[in-house]
C-alpha cells in the first residue's frame, strides 16, 4: 500500500482526485533560507498524499492516518480558527487553505473532505510538514480553481507554516517539495526564488545517500530555531544590511570585532554555508558528485560548532558513516534532532548501516532508522 492508497482508503468517499508531494533532504545549505541565501535540497521518494472529496456545504474536514480525530472548520470560521491556534497537526492543511485564499482571491472555495496519509518520517528533518503543505496546496489549487503556479504554491506553504503554525522557517522546504526533479537537486536563490535543477548523477557514479533518522524529534516552532533566526537578524542589523545574504567571507574579520561571540558564530555559519552551497554546485558541474564530500563535512562542523544545532546522536551518525567509507556526511534539516545524511559508495551501504546501528547501541542511544533516499519528482496529481 502506498500513501496514495492509504489516503484514498481513509477518505471513505468518492475522491475527485489524489495529489501528493514529497519530503526533502537538504544536500547542503542549512539556515541560509530565511537569510535570503542559497540552498540545495532535493525531493525524496517518500511522499504525503491528499485524497479529496467534494462536500455540499462550506466545511473543510481534514483527517489523517497519524491522528484518530478529524477536524472540521467552515470557510467562514477559518480566519478565526487560524488566529486562535491550537490546531496541532490540522494547522498545516487548514493553514494551507487559509493561505491559499489570501494568495488567490479569485479562487472559488467550496467544502471539501481531505484525507492525508504519508510515508515521510515525522520529526526527522526530511520536511514532513512541507509534504503535507505541498499535497494540500496542489489539491486545493485544482479543486478551488486558484490557478497558482508551483512557486506561488510553495509561498502558500511557507505562509501556512510561518503564520498559521508559527514555525519561523524559510521557503526552502516548500520549494524543494514543489519543484523536485528526478536525479537532481534544486539550487535555489531564496532572495529571488530563481531555481535551477542541477543533475546529481549519484547512481551513475555508484553513490547513494544514506539517511540516519536518529528518532530525536525536533519542533521548529519552539525556541532554539527562533533564537538562531533572531541572532541572524541581529548580525544583519549590526552591519546595516537587509539580511546576511548581503555579507561575504570578506566581512568575517569585521563581524568578529563588532559582534558578541555567539552572534558572530551564528553569522559565520550562515556566511560560510552560503559559500559552501555555491562551491557544491560548482563542484558538481565541473567534477561530479564524488567531489563534494569535504564540503558536506565542513557544513556539519559549522552547524555543530558555530550554529550549535547538532545533538550527540547526529554527530555519532556522521562520524560513523565517515569511518565506514562515506565521502561526506552532515546533519540535514533544522537541527536539534532529526536526521543525518551520508554520501557513500552504494556497495558500502549495508556495512555502514550495521556500523551505525552498532554505534548507537554501544552509546546507549535509541536504535535509529537507517535507509537510503533517491532524488525524486516534486508535487503532482496522482489520480
Folded structure, characterized:
The protein has 383 residues and is α+β, with helices and mostly antiparallel strands. It has 12 helices and 12 strands. Strands 1, 2, 3, 4, 5, 6, 7 and 12 form an 8-stranded mixed β-sheet that branches. A 4-stranded antiparallel β-sheet has the order 9-10-8-11. α9 (261-287) packs antiparallel against α10 (293-305). The protein is globular. 51% of the residues are buried. The model has no long low-confidence stretch (mean pLDDT 95).
Give a quick precis of the structure.
The protein is an alpha+beta fold. 42% of the residues lie in helices and 23% in strands.
Can you give the helix content as a percent range?
A: 40-55%
The H-and-E topology, N to C, reads as HEEEEHHEHHHEEEHHHHHEEHEE
Q: Over all CA atoms, what is the radius of gyration?
A: 21 Å
Question: Which residue ranges are poorly predicted, with pLDDT under 50 across at least 5 consecutive positions?
Answer: none
Describe the largest sheet: 8 strands, mixed
Which term fits the overall shape?
A: globular
Count of β-strands: 12
